Amino acid sequence: MGTPGWINRLGVMALVTAAVSFGAESAGAACAKPPYAAKGPDTRFLEMVCGKTKRSGFSSIAKYYINRAGIHEDDWDSTNYGWGKECDATMPLGRMLGSISLIENSYKDKAPDWNDKSPPLVRGMYGFMLGGLDELNDLRAGGCKDYPAEEFDGWFNVDRIQLYMGLFAENIVFRAGTLIHETHHYRRSTSHACEDGDKDNSFYFQRACPRCPVVPPPQPTTYGIEGAWYLSYFNQADDNTSTSILASMLEHGEDRLLDHLCSSSDVPKWMKDVMKKDARVTVTEDQLL
Amino acid sequence: VTSLRRPVVIGTTLVALAAGVWVWTRSSREPEPVSIEQGAPKPSPRASRRAVPTTGAARSTARPASLPSAGGDGEEPSRFPDTEAGRALEQHFRVAEVLGDREERTRAYAESLERLRAHAREAVPILYDAVHELQDAPMEQFTAVKTLADLDSPEAFEALEDIAREPLAPVDEPDRHHKPLLTRDRILRSQAIKGLGRLARSGLETARQALYEIATDPANDQHRSLRFHAVNGFVGTGPGSEARAAAMKPYLPTDLHWLLEPDPNPTPAAPDAG
Questions:
Q1: In chain B, which among 132-151 make CB contacts under 8 A with chain A?
Q2: Complex-level ipTM beyond the 0.95 threshold
């Protein structure tokens, strides 16, 4: 699934060289280190993929995720990031797999496999995310940055999603949202930097980007799809996989859009209602995006 | 697109190889040592926070127990002091984590909250401390602020105001979208502001004044969601809301003016699940 390791190394070296040459930030920001406290949803969703259930020839679903998402041993060391300890929710690898499990298992009639992306969004997101994900790396190559993740593609990068410690210290809902967000960027050349600085100007569409090698077709913005998933989860998740607090945390997913979109003039009505009312808003699937 | 790009990527990286080898040989790919600080309390990032006046003895003694250990759903030691308020809080936190039918969850949460209100005076400082000390447990940290907000009690006003006003790290424009803008600190403040909004709706004028100050604070120019919720809470509904909306208009960017407009066809709100 993933890019061969030697290509990775070359890409990493290029990045390191670039960092040295241009004085870019490479490491050093303070960020929380493992092991992280893990209970409740962290352990619950990880346990769901760490049993004896096999999938596609792998001895556990967690191992299947590892293969499917292009996670490689040389990107995740065992001591600090959890390679070989994929069922340990206090370590980065286990926490990330728990978030993928949340995305897969949060709908009662869940998708049978990642090829099934049918609605509702809370169901189809598993296919969108795991089908679109590849080369999921830990922070080893990128240093200890105090923010969650970024995605690299384009002429000067090896395509990959790079995760940092800022993500693993985050709660399971926003870890999942971040994976969805970065997967949406992945190999789409979508960016937040298309017009003025790094701002999205519309909820619904990525703007044509002069710097992008390929002009993306109109599609929901990365924040748009992330926010829609929060609400779909909020409204339609299986009760047995949600709690009052988990559901309440989802309300703040919409705040994320508000903080990042350059203009909120075309945000959909459901989002306005969610934010204005400080209350749950019921919307149908076709209203989401 | 990817297949066309891949050779270019490889070519580019090969060009960088010569310089990269130099870097490679001088610094191995081994990660920087990461200290494992299991259970070690972190210094509070809010050393300058205002003290929250308390009316009971709880503030100095009623601190949450050590951070919860990793583990499953087994019985765990209480996070809170062995007092009536501490036990009510422990029960409330467990209810907040219960899985299952939404209606039942909602009812259980409301009942638990009602029990907690009887101990609001003692519970508030415990919750306030929990917000600042449970740094490694974001869900529980959030639960603490949400509980303060859901109490809808004047006893919680100062704690909520204090949390809502704690400074946030400045936004770094060049990397704005990937910074942890809405990680826990912003979420906690946002939830606290919502709690102030509830108090304002209940008629607590000091809460409305606090919302006004938060809404007009220039520091929140960079934090649209905080300003949004402060304006929303300040304007509220009922008598005077139109005048308050007019007063707030200059502080909101034009693309957020929809917040100030009455909605003739509001989408029905589902019951609050706590």
A1: 135-139, 142-143, 146
A2: no
